[in-house]
Amino acid sequence: MSTTTAYSVAGMTCNHCVASVTEEIGLIAGAENVSVDLVKGGTSRVTVTSADALDRTLVAAAVEEAGYQLVAAA
Fold first, then answer.
1. What pLDDT was estimated at residue 13?
2. Which among 8, 18, 54, 58 could bridge 36 via Cys, Cβ 3.0 to 4.6 Å?
3. DSSP state of 52
4. Residue 5 phi, psi (nearest 5)
């Protein structure tokens, strides 16, 4: 059974941002699907489906690696 969790990410402005965040989160073990609802210049919603709940610190680190900031659970 999969788990779906939504996160709020600040700073994304374009499709390249979406691709970077999607790629970095997708590298986390157990991540199965990442979708982004882009809000240019605002807080975007990133929804992650995974085999089990992901460690929030790993998700935050992945988002930061992509150059953005995890602000709160959506």
1. 95
2. 18
3. S
4. -130, 140
